[in-house]
Amino acid sequence: MIRVVLIDDHELVRTGFRMILAQQTGIEIAGEAADGETGLAMIRSESPDVAIVDVHMPRLSGIELTDRVRKHKLATRIVILTVVSEAPFPRRLIEAGASGYLTKGCAADELVRAVRQVADGKRYLSPDIAELLALGALDGRTESPFETLSARELDVAIMLARGQDMQGIASKLKLSAKTVATYKYRLFEKLGVENPVELAHLAHSHGLVDDRTRSLGG
Q1: Domain 2-138 has CATH 3.40.50.2300
Q2: What CATH architecture is 145-216?
Q3: Which of 26, 37, 144, 156 could disulfide-pair with 90, CB 3.0 to 4.6 Å?
């Protein structure tokens, strides 16, 4: 039996995915969460085989959650939900350590296929994302500027773009405020932005945050 948890702050998304997966043979829904921190706690307590995680969430993003699951060597495999835009898809999302990547507009059979494949120890990449990556390579399109960031710089960038303050970021990442300030300086320089508003706009255009999560951040 493949045990799955759904972590997404959109109740309709969770409901739709639950209805699709619950009727499949050999798959059961072990729980649901509406934010990243609650979802991480659920992964620790329930030890599901697969967690389907939205990349945009209040309190803890999908990338942050994936990073913590990986660092704590939890057995749950992560499938990230994202929205593909016209901008170059950040390869950093793929490098975050998740086992699968789906777009929110995926078909029911693709969702089931991804869950089964990931539970079997394989990786799954949505055809939409794979096509975008391939087209970018073929036409020489400029890569996402977020490729230049280290994993920790990306964590800080996402939190800043979501409206979180420096002290809050330092507390969540268990870093000193001075260290976070250093990361902020470096990532601003690499991305060519001068303030969090410009950063949020850039992150939104590359699918890393959205306006809704920014308003809920803090």
Answers
A1: yes
A2: Orthogonal Bundle (1.10)
A3: 144
Distance separating alpha carbons of residues 129 and 147, to the nearest angstrom: 16
Most confident of 44-48, 60-64, 153-157: 44-48
Token pair recorded at residue 153: 């710089």
| Residue 28 phi, psi (nearest 5) | -135, 150
The pTM score is 0.72
DSSP element (H, E) containing 2: strand 2-7
DSSP letter (8 states) at residue 209: -
Q: Locate 96 and state its tokens.
A: 């975050």
Q: Is the pLDDT of residue 212 over 60?
A: no
- Residues of the chain above pLDDT 90, percent: 48
Q: Same CATH fold, 145-216 and 2-138?
A: no
Domain-by-domain residue ranges, the chain? Answer: 2-138, 145-216
Distance CA 213, CA 161 (A): 9
Q: What is the pLDDT of residues 2-14, one digit of tens each?
A: 999 999 988 999 9
Task: Please tell me the distance from the alpha carbon of residue 112 to that of residue 206, in angstroms, as a whole number.
Answer: 27
Residue tagged 């697969």 (tokens): 50
Tell me the pLDDT tens digit for each residue of 98-109.
898 888 888 999
Contacts of 95 (CB under 8 A, 6+ apart): 151
Q: Which residue type occupies 119?
A: A
Quick one: which of 187, 159, 153, 157 has its CA closest to 172? Answer: 159
